[in-house]
Amino acid sequence: MSTSQTVAQHLPYLRRYARALSGSQASGDVYVAATLEALIQDPKVLDSTASTRIALYQLFTKIWNSVALNTKSIGAASEQPVEKHLAQIAPMPRQAFLLVALEGLSEDDAAKVLDVDVPKLRELVEDSGRELAAEIATDVLIIEDETFIALDLEGLVESLGHRVLGVARTHAEAIALAKTKRPGIILADIQLADGSSGLDAVNEMLRTFEVPVIFITAYPERFLTGERPEPAFLIAKPFQPATVSAVLSQALFFERNAKRRERKAS
C-alpha cells in the first residue's frame, strides 16, 4: 500500500479529532490541510518507529500548537453545544482528553503524540476532567462493595467537580439510592458484597430511566457475557485514576451529544 493510501485511511479520524479540537469542521480542516502540506514537503516524517496514525497525529499536533490563536477560547466559533464545552478546556488538557476519549489512543500513544511522558499525560487528562466537569457536572451513584476502592472513587469524582449521590454496597442499596435521587451517571462494580450483581442492579434501574454507566470490575468477562446495558463502558481493576477520569468525561460528553442529536431529530 502506498504512503498516500495509508494516510488516506486515517484522514477521517484526523478530521474528527481536528473538528472536536478546533470547534468546527471548517476550522479543523484548515489544520488538516496544513498537516498534509507539511507531509508533502517532508514525507520522511512518517519514517519513524511510530505507526502512521501516530506519526500523522504528531505532525498535526506540532502544527496546531505552533499557532498562538489556539491558546484562546474558540467557543464562539463552535458548531455544537458540546464542542463549546470542550472549547473552554485549556489546549493541552483538551488534546489529551480527545486523544484518549474520542480517538481511543492508549496512554503510551497519546503521550507520544503530545511529546510528554505517561504521568504528564495522566495529569492532563485529569485536568481536562475537572474542567469539563465544571461545564457538565452531575450526580454520581457509586456501586462498590470494597471500602477503600469506594473511597478512592468518591474522592476522584468529587475532585473532578461532580457530586456523589451515594455509595451502595449491595443490589438493594443501589436500587434504594437511585429511587431517592436519579443519578446522572453510575460507576458500578459487578460482584457485590452480598453475592448480588451490580450488573443486575443497573439493568433494573435502566428499566425506568436512562443513564450512562461505567463498570469498574475485576471480572470483565461477566460484563462481556451478561446482559449489558447501553450506553456502558468497562474499566478493569486495578485501574488508574486518569483512566476513570477520561472514561467518566467521555461517557458524559457522548451522552450529552447523543441527547442533542435526539432533540434535533425530533
Summarize the structure.
The chain is of the alpha/beta class and 266 residues long.
Provide the low-confidence segments as ranges: 68-82
Overall body shape: elongated
The name of the CATH topology of the largest domain is Butyryl-CoA Dehydrogenase, subunit A, domain 3
Structural class estimated from helices and strands: alpha/beta
* DSSP helical segment count: 12
Biggest sheet character: 5 strands, parallel
Q: What is Rg?
A: 20 Å
Describe the overall structure:
With 266 residues, the chain is an alpha/beta fold. It has 2 domains: 3-134, Up-down Bundle (Butyryl-CoA Dehydrogenase, subunit A, domain 3); 137-265, Response regulator (Rossmann fold), CATH 3.40.50.2300. It is built from 12 helices and 5 strands. It has helices at residues 3-22, 25-41, 52-65, 81-87, 91-102, 107-114, 118-136, 147-159, 171-180, 198-205, 220-225, 241-265, and strands spanning 139-143, 163-168, 185-188, 213-217, 232-236. A 5-stranded parallel sheet has the order 2-1-3-4-5, sandwiched between helices. Helix 9 runs parallel beside helix 10 (198-205). It is elongated and about 65 Å long. Mean pLDDT is 82; it is low at 68-82.
